[in-house]
TrEMBL record, chain A:
GO cellular component entries: AP-3 adaptor complex; endosome membrane; Golgi apparatus
Chief localization: membrane
SUPFAM superfamilies listed in its UniProt record: ARM repeat
Descriptive protein name: AP-3 complex subunit delta
One Pfam family matching this protein: Adaptin_N
Any single GO BP term: protein targeting to vacuole
Transmembrane segments: none
Keywords carried by this UniProt record: Golgi apparatus, Membrane, Protein transport, Repeat, Transport
Subunit structure, interactors included: Adaptor protein complex 3 (AP-3) is a heterotetramer.
Biased composition annotated in UniProt, kind: Acidic residues: 423-440
Protein localization: Endomembrane system; Golgi apparatus
Role summary: Part of the AP-3 complex, an adaptor-related complex which is not clathrin-associated. The complex is associated with the Golgi region as well as more peripheral structures. It facilitates the budding of vesicles from the Golgi membrane.
From TrEMBL, chain B:
Keyword Protein transport in record: yes
Family: Belongs to the adaptor complexes small subunit family.
Protein name per its UniProtKB record: AP complex subunit sigma
AP complex mu/sigma subunit domain sequence ranges: 1-159
Top-level taxonomic group: Eukaryota
Keyword Glycosyltransferase belongs to the record: no
High-level lineage: Eukaryota, Fungi, Dikarya, Ascomycota, Pezizomycotina
Length: 967, 194
């Protein structure tokens, strides 16, 4: 009973169950309900016992048996016991009746064909005089309707009456749920009944919402309206808008009422609503934002989710600010002094901290300052990125701000789970309710995503590219405070940073320093994939430093270049034997190149300033190496664009390019292969360096630009939208802020509307020169962004955001598909949506497993479902027929005959279905086709004898039913 | 429907485990541990909703709230009374707030049956505990929410044993029905045998 295996005792349990003493019987049943499974072999022995107990004269015994059945019912038990159970539907005690109704549902789950025969009786129970029986029946109908609502449409008037009349809240909730589930599916199938139903349902539900005092009912009504699609259905009409705003107002009440449960469900409902009525939800931003800072982690999660849907370009800075403040380490939080407006929020922050500390202390004893669980932090960071990058940064007005935010996020990156100590690990496991943390995902550092964003911004938004490069520079320089002090989180951002630094090396403020940090002795310790990016970035930066043609080849230059080259070579040398293939390959390639370069440098004499002879710098420096990296501008490319590049005709990838490869290689070993001297450059240069005529299909597709988060065309921009109460000071660190201030001042220097920054704070002047501030190239619209729409609501700079590039003719629906796929990938959610849709119509016949085994089951069920649906329909038809006849001919005996006649046709179907169900349920791996084939063959072979048996059974059923009536 | 009803104490020892679908014992154990670790970490002020434990979270997740009418468990509710946690796992077809009330009714019913219920009552009279639950939930569906009816039904079934000290006095007499049937089953005195 408390989790111990006792399958060995099943026979003894059975013995106790059959004891004549009620008390012992009860214990026996209890044991059976707790331990018997469908596989228990003594189950088949229980049939008679259960029959006997069901037929008992004492209600407690019957209810005992009924409860027993509800737990251990198997398909065969269901078939055998159904007559007895049906007879209990007309038992004198409502106690028994209501339980029988529910048990029948269990039986239907086991053998669906029962539904057909017993449905009329069940339907009668809706008119029962006892409230609980009706309630139970509604419950069952609700469960059944979830599987296939169409069957139960005829009940609509009856249920509607119940909805308007019943005083029982619980039942009303169920009815609303019923409406919800059925309308969900009805909308999908576009049943003609649907519009009428909506019209009919809206008034009473609205009425309920306005009047009911019960919070649970109120919530369910609103929830039903929202997730049933009713609101979406009447959207656009005045009535619909009214109703929606009523709902939102009521939900606001939930949030402010102070009860955390109501808050939770309120947020839940709002999250659902936000998809259709974002503007209405946004009106209540104030309360919702308060929930983000709630002490309860569950509520925070919900609020976070809601906010992601709700945020718009106006509220983004504030929302992000609040979130980042949460990430702030507690120690920092304490010493922060907030500015005036933050008074209220400030307090909650303190509380919050206390709460966390208390909790941490309670559990872990001496643990220093346990803050929010790491998983939560991770989710917050991901959500922030998601919010900002949505719809190709449609909400981001100020990209410099965004860059600052990103850098700040790196600083707050939680430790990577694998590195975290046990306690933290514990936490993150506990709270990772939100998707993302499957094992693989868990290893992932948020730095990866932050890096992706940095790269995206650097590529897409030219105007802040310089800024991005500067940040990348700082990141790879690993300046103090760029990364969290402990835990090693966020390190994966280095990959992207190195890439940016390399790719836009011309924009580097101090390329020498950048190269130094790339070549730092700790670099080889980075993870291999990042190291590979480093290796690629080093020659790029190197080229930027050494490649200038104009500087004279002075001895000083020669010596610096020689020194640099040697350093690069020494850096690459150990990597050439790296165990990681990618690293090894890149290192070996560049190593050779740099050796050549150093030879060339050594052989080119420097031109003395006073000498009359001038020497040019070696061509390999000025031409060859830069030519490898400088060429076309890199543009973002749609994730699947490369796949669409048409295969050139006559290209056979299996064909060796040079059939004599082997021979060539062998020759190569003898010949001295010191190529790469200056004269060979020409063809090489022509090939790589000259711009081909720009064709869309020629865009380099594998640039390492992950445009996963890019979603649609369109851009917007702007700055200075800080009307919100949130001050940047609250969430950005001091140094970043300072930089911002400086930038702003610099930017406004030429602006006559600003008073010149004559007074410069102390300590800032020093840095002012060392960090050149790039001007925003406002009017500069890159060629790639032909799909620009400028939104200029208020004063906004136009920031060009490059959209994905694709092949000509690759857009429209295709693009949307891509984007969606990319979106899914980008968010790192595993198969979320797919599972949902399959679960929607889930016709799972057993009561649904807990977690494991379910997936397997689902597959099998999915395959079987279509067929089942077909049978369902037939069953429904048959039910109708039987009903019709029932109502015509009341005497029982006649019904029997009619039934036999009427059922003959469907009988075979029934048989098939039963078999098939058993097959799929029991042996989940069995393929549907097999089952089908087997069932058909079997049923044909057995058709005749089956019929006979069935006839007998039907007779028995009838006698059973009659007996029941007599009792 | 309701997938499971669990009761365990502050140390995570199960006092009642009722799963309305058949799952492995080992899985049950695992689930219990996971839920307990979730629930025990929560401050008293937090709301009564729990995130799904890893074992359940596999297929469903935050967004499935919106779209699915499926069977997968989506809601994990708990209430904390003195030394006991009452947990209900349900799918989206049940009303979360309604379920919280249901737990309340359950506890009230137990309270009425045992007169000031405590954990010991549930340990020694686990049959009554189960019987009460059976009056409220059958096969995962809520069958009765009326406190009076539930208590009456359990009492009628003649199963309500008094607390140990009173038991010796009351004998089997606490249960009128049991006595009435004494002739048939010579039962009702089963408690004296212990």
């Amino acid at each position: 009973m408390f989790g111990h295996d006792m399958s060995w005792a099943s026979f003894n349990v059975l013995e106790v169950m059959s004891s004549p003493k009620f008390m012992q019987k009860r214990v026996g049943y209890l044991a059976a309900t707790q331990t018997f499974t469908l596989d228990t072999d003594v189950l088949m022995l229980t049939t008679n016992l259960l029959k006997k107990d069901l037929g008992s004269r004492y209600p407690p015994e019957i209810s005992l048996a009924i409860n027993g059945v509800s737990h251990i019912v198997s398909p065969s038990l269901a078939r055998d016991l159904s007559p007895d159970l049906l007879s209990k539907l007309s038992h004198t005690s409502p106690l028994i009746r209501k339980k029988a109704v529910l048990v029948l549902y269990k039986c239907f789950l086991q053998s669906p064909e029962l539904l057909r025969t017993s449905w009329p009786r069940l339907r009668e129970c809706l008119n029962d005089e006892d409230g609980s029986v009706v309630s139970a029946t509604v419950n069952v109908v609700c469960e059944l309707a979830r599987r296939n609502p169409k069957n139960y449409l005829p009940l609509a008037p009856q249920l509607f009456r119940l909805l308007t009349e019943t005083p029982n809240n619980w039942m009303t909730i169920k009815l609303i749920k019923l409406v919800r589930t059925s309308s969900q599916i009805l909308f999908a199938t576009l049943t003609p009944l649907e519009p009428r139903l909506i019209k009919k349902l809206t008034p009473p539900i609205t009425n309920l919402i306005r009047t009911t005092p019960a919070m649970s009912l109120l919530y369910e009504c609103i929830n039903g309206l929202i997730s049933g699609g009713l609101l979406a259905g009447i959207q656009g009409t005045d009535e619909g808008e009214d109703l929606a705003s009523v709902c939102v107002t009521k939900l606001r009440g939930f949030l402010v009422i102070g009860d955390s449960n109501l808050k939770y469900v309120g947020l839940l409902a709002l999250t659902k609503l936000v998809a259709t009525h974002a503007h209405l939800v946004a009106e209540h931003q104030d309360v919702i934002l308060d929930c983000i800072d709630d002490t309860d982690i569950s509520i925070r999660y919900r609020a976070l989710e809601l906010v992601v849907g709700m945020v718009n370009s106006d509220s983004l800075p504030e929302v992000v600010g609040r979130l980042i403040r949460q990430l702030k380490p507690a120690a920092n939080r304490g010493e922060e002094e907030y500015v005036e407006l933050e008074g209220a929020a400030d307090e909650s922050e303190e509380e919050d901290m206390e709460e966390d500390v208390m909790r941490g202390g309670k559990r872990k004893g001496q643990l220093v300052l346990l803050e929010l669980p790491e998983a939560y932090k991770r989710t917050v960071i991901k959500r922030i990125i998601e919010m900002c990058s949505r719809d190709l940064y449609v909400n981001v007005g100020d990209f410099e701000w965004y860059l600052d935010v990103l850098v700040q996020l790196v600083r707050y990156a939680p430790p990577v789970s694998s590195l975290a100590d046990g306690e933290l690990q514990d936490d993150s496991e506990d709270f990772d309710e939100d998707e993302d943390d499957t094992e693989a995902e868990k290893e992932k550092d948020v730095g990866e995503e932050i890096g992706r964003e940095l790269r995206n911004v650097a590529i897409r938004v030219r105007s802040v590219r310089a800024e991005a490069v500067r940040y990348a520079e700082m990141l790879i320089g690993r300046h103090d405070g760029m990364f969290p002090a402990a835990g090693g989180g966020g390190k994966r951002v280095l990959g992207a940073a190195a890439w940016i630094a390399g790719e836009f090396s011309s924009l580097l403020t101090d390329s020498q320093e950048a190269l130094n940090s790339l070549l730092h002795s700790s670099s080889p310790l980075l993870p291999p994939d990042i190291l590979a990016i480093y290796i690629q970035a080093i020659p790029k930066v190197y080229a930027a430093i050494t490649g200038s043609e104009n500087t004279p080849w002075t001895p000083a230059r020669k010596s610096t270049v020689t020194l640099l080259t040697t350093r690069v070579i020494t850096f690459f040398e150990p990597l050439a034997i790296s165990p990681n293939l990618e690293v090894q390959e890149r290192a070996v390639e560049f190593l050779e190149l740099f050796r050549l370069a150093s030879e060339a440098i050594a052989s080119t004499p420097a031109s003395m300033p006073d000498a009359e002879e001038e020497y040019d710098p070696p061509l390999i420096l000025t031409q060859a190496i830069p030519a490898m990296f400088i060429g076309q501008e890199l543009n973002p490319v749609a994730p699947r664009a490369q796949r669409k590049v048409p295969l050139p005709e006559g290209l056979d990838l299996d064909e060796p390019i040079n059939p004599n490869l082997q021979q060539l290689l062998r020759e190569a070993e003898y010949t001295d292969s010191t190529l790469g001297t200056d004269e060979e450059d020409d063809g090489f240069r022509e090939w790589y360096y000259q711009k081909p005529i720009p064709k869309a299909s020629n865009t380099p597709a594998s640039l390492g630009v992950d445009s996963a988060s890019a979603k649609a065309f369109g851009n917007s921009s702007g700055s200075g939208s800080y009307q919100g109460a949130m001050k940047e000071e609250d969430y950005l660190d001091a140094d970043i802020l300072e930089r911002r201030k400086r930038d702003r001042r610099e930017r406004n220097k030429d602006d006559p509307f600003y008073i010149g920054a004559s007074v410069v704070g102390e300590g800032e002047e020093i840095d002012l020169d060392s960090i050149p501030v790039m001007k925003l190239d406002l009017g500069d619209v890159p060629p790639a962004t032909s799909h620009q729409k400028a939104q200029t609501k208020r004063r906004r700079e136009r920031v060009a955001i490059a959209a994905d590039e694709g092949i000509a003719g690759d857009d429209g629906e295709d693009f949307v598909g891509e984007v969606e796929a990319a979106k899914k990938k980008g968010r790192g959610r595993k198969g979320l949506l797919q599972v949902d849709s399959s679960g929607l119509m889930g016709y799972s016949l057993d009561g649904d497993g807990e977690g494991e085994g379910k997936k397997k089951e689902e597959e099998a069920i999915k395959a079987a479902r279509e067929q089942v649906e077909k049978y369902r329909k037939e069953m429904e038809l048959a039910t109708e027929r039987v009903k019709a006849r029932n109502s015509l001919e009341i005497p029982k005996v006649k019904v029997k005959k009619v039934k036999e006649g009427g059922e003959k046709k469907v009988k075979k179907v029934k048989k098939d279905k039963g078999k098939e169900k058993e097959g799929t349920e029991k042996k989940k791996k069995k393929k549907d086709t097999e089952v089908e084939g087997g069932a058909e063959g079997g049923s044909k072979g057995r058709a005749d004898e089956g019929k006979k048996k069935k006839k007998k059974k039907v007779k028995k059923d009838e006698t059973g039913a009659e007996a029941g009536v007599e009792v | 429907m309701i997938n499971a009803v669990l009761v365990f104490n502050n140390n995570g020892q199960p006092r009642l485990t009722k799963f309305y679908s058949q799952i492995d014992v080992s899985l049950q154990q695992k689930l219990l541990t996971q839920i307990f670790s979730l629930v025990s970490n929560r401050p008293a002020s937090a709301c009564n909703f729990l995130p799904l434990p890893p074992l359940l979270a596999g297929s469903s997740s935050s967004t499935s709230w919106n779209t699915s009418a499926g069977d997968e468990p989506t809601t994990l509710l708990y209430r904390h009374y003195a030394t006991l946690y009452f947990i209900v796992i349900s799918d989206s077809l049940e009303s979360p707030l309604g379920l919280l009330d249901l737990i309340q009714v359950f506890v009230q019913a137990l309270d009425a049956l045992f007169e000031n219920v405590c954990e010991l009552d549930l340990i020694f009279n686990f049959e009554t505990l189960h019987a009460t639950l059976e009056e409220m939930i059958i096969g995962g569906c809520v069958v009765e929410t009326d406190l009076g009816k539930i208590v009456k039904a359990v009492r009628d079934a003649g199963k309500v044993a008094k607390r140990p000290k009173e038991r010796s006095v009351g004998g089997g007499g606490g249960s009128g029905m049991g006595m009435g049937r004494g002739g048939f089953m010579s039962g009702g005195d089963v408690w004296t045998g212990r």
